[in-house]
Amino acid sequence: MLAPLPLSTDESGAWLRLAHARGLKPVALRALLGAFGLPQRVLAQTFEALAAVAGTQAAHAALAPQPAGFGQQLADLQAWCALPGNALITLADPAYPPRLLTMTDPPALLYVKGRIELLHARSVAVVGSRSATPQALDDARRFASAFAAAGLAVVSGLALGVDGAAHEGALDERGGTVAVIGTGADLVYPAANRPLALKIAALGAILSEWPLGTPARSANFPQRNRVISALVEGVIVVEAAMRSGSLITARLANEMGRDVFALPGSIHAPLSRGCHRLIKEGAQLVETPEEVLEALGLAAQATQPAQSPQAVPSQRTGSATRRRSTRDEQTLPLALDSPSATNPPTLEPQAQALLAALGHAPATLEILAQRTDMAEAVLQATLLRLELAGHVSALPGGRFMRASRR
Questions:
Q1: Strand partners, 363
Q2: Domain spans of the chain?
Q3: Is there a contact between 394 and 387 (Cβ–Cβ < 8 Å)?
Q4: Which residues partner with 206 through β-bridges?
Q5: DSSP string spanning 206-272?
Q6: For residues 268 and 272, what is the distance between their CA atoms, to the nearest angstrom?
Q7: From 1.20.1290.10, 3.40.50.300, 3.30.160.60, 3.40.50.450, which CATH number describes the 116-306 domain?
Q8: Cα gap 176→182, rounded to integer Å
Q9: Which tens digits make up the pLDDT trace of 182-233?
Q10: Which pLDDT band, with edges at 50, 70 and 90, does 381 fall under?
């Protein structure tokens, strides 16, 4: 099993000081480490020697006095590392993930909770919208479960929506899951994912490049995305709007030579446009997990074929197998009032919940029953009302989809 090299207090302090020195960029730090060796050697150099290698700004940053509270920060780090399952991996450590070394700016320090070996395993990223549709959540779980069952570690960003669903799908499979986060490793963002984060720390791995105690900041997440892209062999975008952070992850992955895959969706769905844009730009359109596994050179028989949502058996699945996100539970049906004869129909919560469960892809009665937990008679009556109001279209094969509204 991989284990980081033990660090003395002086070594930990030198790494911590340089890794998070204000104004010292990872590229410059890597140049200094390459020229002089370990951080203690860098800190022992003259300003002129450092400037000759990495420039005056980097020299000033490296030799700046220790910031206020540095001693406490170091003590907190050592206490955190002493806890079971926690580890600090330096850029010079054999346990450092080799794929991250291909980056031009690899993080000098990695804070890890959980299974370090997953950072060295073959892996794919499954990413997508935070405000995902029920269909996208199902797809994320299904694809991630198939990948992890085939032995791939599934990497994502612990965000709401697709990220969380991907972690859930992979968590109990042999490949496991890795959450790359944009806060300190001692924090969980968003707070709603704390139970999931605890499971990942126990069964998978949580990875951060940020100092302990670092809160969520918008600028941190694009940097987190570059680590996700570097850590994996391919990125699968399940659902994304045109300005989604998932497109940043895909772009970075493409620039690093990783494979990029995208799931198509309805042309009427705003959260499909990002995926369609990726496909137009050269991403591989995929409809099943097996297509991704084949592209990555894994035998299709390594995992059981994942059943398409459109091929769900007609018999309704038991409640123990139903999965819903917190977002879904908050939109459970309440009531549907009769539409006014003179005003346009107003959708009440029950109809709104059904439309949300329908998403923008065709779904069967069985799928909708699982997503909403409505009684069959209520479900069929609500569908009929929505169809008569022009919100839903019935398709061959007992499927339904949102009507195209111009």
A1: 400
A2: 9-81, 116-306, 319-402
A3: yes
A4: 113, 179
A5: EEE-SPTT----TTHHHHHHHHHHHH-SEEEE----TT-HHHHHHHHHHHTT-EEEE----TT-GGG
A6: 8
A7: 3.40.50.450
A8: 20
A9: 999 999 999 999 999 999 999 999 999 999 999 999 999 999 999 999 999 9
A10: confident
Residue type, 188: V
The reported pTM is 0.77
What are 238's two structure tokens? 């399940």
User: Whose structure tokens read 């459109």?
Assistant: 310
H or E, element range at 194: helix 194-203
Give CA–CA dist 41/63, Å, rounded.
Answer: 12
pLDDT of residue 318: 34
Other Cβ atoms within 10 Å of 62 Cβ, number = 23
Does residue 359 contact residue 133 with C-beta atoms inside 8 Å? Answer: yes
Cα separations in angstroms, 236 against 98, 138, 353: 21, 14, 28
In 3D space, the residue among 193, 175, 303, 171 whose CA is nearest the CA of residue 233 turns out to be 175
Type of residue numbered 39 = P
- Give me Rg for the CA atoms of the chain: 24
- 319-402 CATH fold: Arc Repressor Mutant, subunit A (1.10.10)
Nearest to 125 by CA among 153, 101, 151: 153
Shared fold status for 116-306 and 319-402: no
Q: Which tokens in the block code for residue 188?
A: 């969980």
Out of 21-35, 270-284, 292-306, least confident range = 292-306
Q: How far apart, in Å, are the Cα atoms of 118 and each of 112, 223, 233, 251, 334?
A: 11, 20, 13, 24, 44
- Residue 193 CB contacts under 8 Å (≥ 6 apart), including other chains: 158, 159, 160, 164
